[in-house]
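Render diguanylate cyclase in 3D.
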Amino acid sequence: MTMKKPCAAFDVRLAEMRTIAIKTSVTWFLWVNMLFSSFILGRNYFSAFEAEVLFHHPAALLETMMVFDLTLSAGVLFIMRMAPLQNAHWLGALAKWTVVALSLCWAGCFFVLIVSDDVRIIFPSAALLLFTALISLYFDPKVLLSFILPIWLTILITSLFYRDSLTVMNGLQWILLAGLIESGRRILNRWFLLALRREQENADLIQQLGLLANNDPLTGIANRRSFETQMDHAILRHQQDGKGFGLIMLDVDHFKLYNDYYGHQKGDLCLMAIARALESAALTSSAIVGRFGGEEFILLLPDADAESLETAAQNIAAVLQAQNIPHAASPVSDRVTVSQGLALWQPGVSARELIAGADKALYQAKQEGRNRYK
């Protein structure tokens, strides 16, 4: 199973999913901790046979730890349940610090059990607790390690000083448990990353399909379908605020002659340059630039009046003149020029009527000699 090199978007998504996952899974983890704490507190009562009641040292520390575990788990469960914003960032931080606090609590518990020579339930309790942590926290190695490491080190170091509880069999059990937990963590985390990567790939594919559906593949600006959709939205918005907007439809002068003279590859580069010119000549960042078909382009300027519309048309001509694209086959100029038709939207005018008005003005500009706006 191969893993691709992570990208920035995937890293961000991974961090988000880990935050969501820990807020979701920690609830179950806290309930399990409360169950285990209750068992430790009443283990002598739950036993099927009459077991000797051992006195622990230091006195009452074990009970204090388990009461703290119960209280902390119940309190955090209540806070997470009653939080007004369930997606708040601080809930994830609270869950992580709670995991650390519970780990220290259980480390103290196992220390007391080993010191007091009460080893009956150390291995099964620790094994179940660590596997519970694995199931709940496998998706975040740092958080999982913050729970496992204090417990593991406490049991290991305390057993070295109290060798009566450390036998060859016990040592093999702990080594086997460590191997199982680590291998399980690797497998689960790998599947988690794989599922997340597939989700990211699907999201990227949907985004790419959206771009293909809404953008012109050559120039990258809006295609006709997308432009008309955005224009309909602009009409609805301006009908509500009472403002108008402007439309500029333009055509590259004698573009067929340009293609015949320079070839279609140069023609494509010319269209791309014109699209960039339109984007830079637009008066506002909210302007919508689209390719209407062939060498025809269209520009929507929100909140524009007649004066600003003419200014935009002059800017387009100036930017194209500055680009200085040769057009040796043009009878109008030795450089690429455009003819432009201007139209202002008024309340009650449909999108089709507005485009027809701009197209009519463009036709007049062509009839009067091209390289101008009307």
